[in-house]
Amino acid sequence: MEGVAQMRWHLGGWAAVVVLSVAGAALAGDGAKGKRPRLDLRASPRVALSPVEILLTGQLKGGAELEEFYCPGLEWEWGDGTRSAYESDCAPFESGAALERFFSARHAYRSPGAYSVRLTLRRANRTVAVATVAVMVRGHMASASDASDF
Are 57 and 41 in contact (CB under 8 A)? Predict the structure, then answer.
């Protein structure tokens, strides 16, 4: 597994963006020829007290090693009015090239609220996959029963 960590400026501050490259055959699942991978997005923690830094992890699951998913640009929409972007710089696609299948970033939330975080994968100015996850940030005085609403 190889990784590249970068800091990217986005409206409102800096965000850490980590892109991990994993051999595609190990994660391709069924590997059905021509089947599109599915983008899954997870947040940790999903419910927290403010202020908090959340780790978001996107994963391409299943599907074939399709060129349209090779070396995507990433756009993170944090749900608080800010965004981060990451542009990949990769060698041209060759048959048998492994896809990057894991994408992660951290984002700090300073105010309580319900946030919908969205990760968009783009290639050649075209959206190839989108996933969202809900994050709930409570104030310091939130009761334990408030977290069960989520």
Answer: yes
Render pLDDT for 67-124 as a digit per residue (tens, 0 to 9). 999 999 999 999 999 999 999 888 999 988 888 999 999 999 999 999 999 999 999 8
Q: Which domains does the chain have, with CATH numbers?
A: 2-147 (2.60.40.10)
- Give 108 or 125, the one with higher predicted confidence: 108
| Chain Cα centroid distance, residue 43 | 9
By DSSP bridging, strand 47-49 and strand 126-138 are parallel
Q: Residue 47 in contact with residue 55, Cβ under 8 Å?
A: no
